[in-house]
Every structure is written in C-alpha cells, then in structure tokens.
C-alpha cells in the first residue's frame, strides 16, 4: 500500500512530514509531494525516499484571477497524479501547498489525514478540515475543529533527533568548555531581534560566565565579530543541521516559539526564555502562552522587551528556571508512536472508518 505525504516549504511543515514518513516506511510504500527546496530534496535523498516536486500557488489580491485559475489547474493536476500513483492514504502537514492536492484527493475519495503543529490551527487546517478523515494535533486543544475528527498525537520528531550524545563528546567535537551554556535560536524569521538583544548585552553574559551558542542566520559575521571583540566563550553559526547536539549542551535556551522548537525543548527538558515571532497569524504567541500557563516556559512578547530591560527579565527567568525544569518533566508534546499505530489501524479498515482514538 502506498502513502503520499504532502508538505510545505518551511521546516515547520516539512520535518513533521519527514518524521511520519520515517515511522511508516517499514509498513508502506512512502512517496513525498514537496515544493522545490534544496534542503528538502537533500533530506529526502539522504533517507532514500521517493518524491515528486510539485508546483504551488498562493491566492493573493494582486494576482487574484491568475492564482484562482492556477489553483483549479492544480486540483486537476493532482487528480491525474493520484490516479497514476494509486495511494491508499494522503497525509498533509500544513501550508497552502497542500490545499489543491487535498481537495483533489477528496474528489477521488481517498483517505485523508492532516497534521496540525500549532496550538491554534492554521488557515490551511481550517480550510481542509471538512475534507479530512482525521486531524492529528500536537497540543491538547481542538479550537472548534470537528471534534470527532481530532486525535491528539503529539508532534512527530525525525529519527536524528532521537539520538543520544554524551555531553563531553560534543564539547570536544565543537571545541567548547564544560561550563554553563546558553543556546540562542532566532528561527527562520525574525532572528535579527534576538541577535541584537544578545549582542547589546554581551558584557552581562560575560560577567555571568555564560558560554553562548547562537544560531545567528544572516547576521553570523556581525555577531561573530562582536563575540571576538568582547572575548565571549562560545560558538556562532548561521545554521546547524544536528540540533540534537546543541540541545545536549544547553542549560538554558532563548528562542522563538514555533511548534517544532517548543516540542524539542520540552522533549529535552530545557528551561526556555520564549520570545514568540509576533507575525504570521500570531500562532507562536499561543504556543508560548500554553507553556507559560502550565509553568513550563518563561514568556515575554517582543513588544515588551528591549536591550535595556532584557537583563532584568532574564534574571527573572533564571529565578524561575528550576521550577520550569521540574514542570517540564511532567509533560510530553512529541509523538511516541501514536501516529504510526493510528495509521496502521486506519489503513486496514476498508470502509475508512476507525473509531478507536488514541
């Protein structure tokens, strides 16, 4: 039996799909439908997954007529693809890329599953919920989605993240010391804000004897020059593929609040100072609020923080960090095999109905 997984262009949409593919590859023939992105194609080739690069369309006011025409063309295009591939199940992991393909699969009466990563469902999930047989959720919150379709499974993590490393080995590999370590993640969007907060307060971190690892994105050269100028212990990267190694070293994290990042820090039980990216529908704010509400994260909105009050807020975070770490031991947001079990049962039921929810 074949399963087709459709993902969007961002890591937040692609990596959950990749993790689902890894969990199912021993039971099904897996094929990915993905937008053309170099990092996506590299990850799929590395794991020997079959894939098709698909076109996409965003409906905008500026190009409304053209985008509508292209949208309906992609529905027809998807129908021909599905007739050729003959999949038993279609899984979408969000993004506008999925929409015409999920609609096309519904026209062919295929079994459809959607995975929603964030606390607040995206527009895509809301649009596609009538077409889906089931909606997998990371957070225990349904937010007006069809109750009978929702299954709380957690967030699927790729196999690379599940590897365990010795702290001493990673310190030696990266040339770092055995000292109090702060990890900073700006995310794919809005990294400059967090980079500036840190650079403007390097004297504070030096006084507190922090070793700093920062994923600085496009600001790498600028941040690195400031580290050298202030003689800060640590490392500056533009990007780092094996994040699991950095989490192994981290005592504290300053980061955005994308669903993937939230799940990773919960999985590793690391106290986090959360500064959600305020745009893109505000879903990161809701993710961070959830952690704050259950005592598992320190949350400050971007508009409430600046270079002058940052150290005061960070000191408050350090005071709360012990309790945060203890509370993190009590929760789980990652998938622990529920998705695999559910899809196996779902695939075996010929009439497409499966009522026993995980």
Distance between the termini: 23 Å
CATH second-level architecture of the largest domain: 3-Layer(aba) Sandwich
Main sheet record? 7 strands, parallel
- Gyration radius from CA atoms, angstroms: 21 Å
What is the count of β-strands?
A: 13
Shape: elongated
CATH superfamily of the largest domain: Glycogen Phosphorylase B
Average pLDDT, rounded to a whole number, is 93
Helical segment count? 14
Tell me the domain tally: 2
Which bin fits the share of residues in helices? 40-55%
Structural class: alpha/beta
Low-confidence stretches: 351-358
Strand content: 15-25%
- The top-level CATH class of the largest domain is Alpha Beta
What tags apply to this protein structure?
Rossmann fold; six-stranded parallel sheet; 2 domains; 14 helices; disordered C terminus; 13 strands; alpha/beta; 358 residues
Provide structural commentary.
A seven-stranded parallel beta sheet has the order 3-2-1-4-5-6-7, sandwiched between helices. The longest helix is centred in the first third of the chain and has 22 residues, at 64-85. Helix 3 crosses helix 4 (99-107). The chain has 14 helices and 13 strands. It is an alpha/beta fold. The protein folds into two domains: 2-156 and 335-348, Glycogen Phosphorylase B (Rossmann fold, 3-Layer(aba) Sandwich), CATH 3.40.50.2000; 161-328, Rossmann fold.
């Amino acid at each position: 039996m074949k399963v087709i997984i459709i993902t969007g262009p961002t890591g937040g949409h692609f990596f959950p799909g990749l993790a689902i593919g890894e969990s199912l590859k021993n039971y099904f023939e897996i094929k990915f439908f993905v937008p053309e992105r170099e990092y996506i194609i590299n990850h799929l080739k590395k794991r020997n997954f079959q894939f098709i690069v698909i076109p996409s369309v965003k409906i905008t006011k500026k190009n409304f007529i053209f985008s509508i025409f292209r949208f309906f063309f992609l529905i027809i295009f998807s129908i021909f693809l599905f007739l050729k591939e003959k999949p038993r199940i279609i899984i979408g992991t969000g993004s506008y890329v999925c929409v015409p393909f999920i609609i096309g699969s519904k026209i062919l009466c295929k079994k459809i599953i959607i995975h929603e990563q964030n606390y607040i469902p995206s527009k895509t999930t809301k649009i596609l919920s009538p077409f889906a047989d089931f909606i997998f959720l990371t957070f225990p919150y349904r937010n007006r989605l069809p109750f009978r379709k929702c299954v709380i499974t957690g967030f699927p993590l790729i196999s690379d993240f599940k590897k365990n490393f010795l702290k001493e080995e990673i310190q030696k590999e990266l040339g770092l010391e055995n000292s109090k370590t702060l990890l900073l993640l700006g995310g794919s969007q809005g990294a400059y804000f967090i980079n500036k907060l840190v650079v403007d307060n390097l004297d504070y971190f030096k006084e507190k004897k922090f070793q700093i690892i920062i994923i600085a994105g496009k600001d790498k050269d600028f941040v690195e020059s400031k580290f050298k100028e202030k003689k800060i212990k640590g490392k500056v990267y533009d990007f780092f593929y094996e994040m699991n190694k950095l989490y192994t070293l981290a005592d504290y994290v300053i980061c955005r609040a994308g669903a993937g990042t939230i799940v990773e820090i919960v999985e590793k039980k690391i106290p986090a100072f959360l500064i959600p990216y305020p745009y893109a529908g505000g879903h990161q704010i809701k993710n961070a609020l959830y952690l704050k509400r259950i005592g598992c994260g320190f949350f400050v909105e971007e508009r409430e923080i600046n270079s002058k009050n940052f150290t005061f807020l960070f000191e408050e975070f350090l005071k709360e960090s012990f309790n945060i770490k203890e509370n993190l031991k009590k929760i789980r947001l990652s998938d622990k095999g529920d998705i695999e079990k559910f899809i196996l049962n779902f695939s075996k039921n010929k009439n497409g109905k499966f009522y026993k929810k995980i």
